[in-house]
Amino acid sequence: MIKDYKDKIVVVTGAANGIGKQLALGCAKRGAHLVINDIHGDEAEKVAQEIRDMGQKAVAVQADVSLNEECKRIFDVTMETYGHVDVLINNAGVSAFGDVTEIVEQDIHWVTEVNVYSHWYMMGHFIPQMKKQGNHCQIVNVCSIAGLITLSSAPVYFSTKHAAVALSESTYKWLKETNANIDLAVFCPGFVQTEMYLTDRHRPARYSKNDNPFYTSKKYEEYNKMNRYVLDTGRELEPVIEEVFQALNTDNFFILTHDKYDSLIRNQGIFQADKVRPITPEDIAPKE
Ligand SMILES: NC(=O)c1ccc[n+]([C@@H]2O[C@H](COP(=O)([O-])OP(=O)(O)OC[C@H]3O[C@@H](n4cnc5c(N)ncnc54)[C@H](O)[C@@H]3O)[C@@H](O)[C@H]2O)c1
């Protein structure tokens, strides 16, 4: 992986808040120049300004990464501004509530387009350029521990994160087989203290909440409360991001920052090979 960020050009999607913002600031602190994308242009501009105040270059690009033509615009602005690219961080992600019988159909599309399609689109635009350049480049796809194991809650989130991990694994293998000078890693955190509980705030207009009664139901409100609780009780953001940069000093594909899931992942492999069923946390630590 890239160890020296000095004067590297780094593109981060969903970089106005949370994990994306912290990763962008971490790259800038290490000497990189940034492209700060977010669906909220004014918030992206604030982060870009913060980076310019640190003495680095930064340009903000308002774009909805669930749309291919908007991803192409991020690529075009990167080329117009810097002429090349070194690192792509696909971070933008959203979540929606509802089991398979109750989820509002548009939310399956929204979450899939942001969490999975955006990775297809962004890598589709940036990898040919990286290959053409030939210098050492890097892609970090922010997925989730939800891309490696599942719980019964929020199946749309788990299924999209699994798809994003699979896309990353397959692309990683292809990059190696074709001798591309491009490293690829997936970051799969557990809960981190961000404002991801405000995920509905990031809906593009075409997926704004409609009059479906599920959105105003007691159950939706309870999902929201639980989501806020698990995020608020997650790991603190800054130390997690420092661990990501430490992990990027190695050539590991998987970046995992929440040790408490290690045994679940390890034992899941055994459950699968033994043809049992998906593992649950209770298999590891039975409820009293
Ligand atoms: N916070 C956690 O506990 C956690 C855990 C595992 C994985 N993740 C993943 O980390 C990533 C970042 O999450 P976070 O916690 O920082 O969330 P966040 O909600 O704080 O930040 C997400 C950012 O993405 C932007 N965004 C959303 N949709 C977009 C779109 N269509 N186009 C461009 N930008 C868009 C938002 O405006 C926001 O700035 C996500 O992919 C998320 O799934 C988060």
From TrEMBL:
Coiled coil (residue ranges): none
Sequence similarity: Belongs to the short-chain dehydrogenases/reductases (SDR) family.
Signal peptide limits: none
Keywords, alphabetical: Oxidoreductase
Gene3D superfamilies: NAD(P)-binding Rossmann-like Domain (3.40.50.720)
InterPro entries assigned: NAD(P)-bd_dom_sf (IPR036291), SDR_fam (IPR002347)
Superkingdom of origin organism: Bacteria
CDD domains xrefs: SDR_c
Official protein name in the record: SDR family NAD(P)-dependent oxidoreductase
One term of GO molecular function: oxidoreductase activity, acting on the CH-OH group of donors, NAD or NADP as acceptor
Keyword Membrane among record annotations: no
